[in-house]
Amino acid sequence: MHRKSRLFMGVLVVLLLTMLPGCSFHLRGVAKLPSSINPLYIQGVGEYDPLRKDFQQIFDGADIKVTTDQSKANAVLNITKQNQNRRVLSVDSRGKVVEYEIHQALEFELLDASGVQLMENQSVGTQRTYENTQTGILGKNQEEGLLRRDLRLDLIRRVVNRMQEQLR
Predict the structure, then answer these.
(1) Which domains are assigned to the chain?
(2) Fewer CB within 10 Å, N- or C-terminus of the chain?
């Protein structure tokens, strides 16, 4: 009897999971973007820029193909400006840096294939702080690199969220 109830629960779980997409449920982090922007061309970032790669992954998850040929695109995500910097937040009594703040921002607009603005030029930015201990210097460089990647992913999520909101 116990085995039958396990089988029943397994079948029930599979059935519920197959019904979720039909009720417009989407996993957190999966963007719901209109098909009218598919395929999408990303302009303003280099071919090997990590920003392009991360955008591509997010758009792939949203079933938006990123094309490398602008003439085949239905929309263009134009990155008009990128900015990143690091500033000192605090120093100790010997003048050594104790804490940094890193900041990343970008400006973007979305155009249709004929160059008409679908979304006006707007900016997004984010920042984080981290401690700069004098031990583990190599680890601190690695930590800053990871923080910069997290900031970049946060910027991308903000851009995609704005696209979702404004392209309804």
Answers:
(1) 2-166 (3.30.160.150)
(2) N
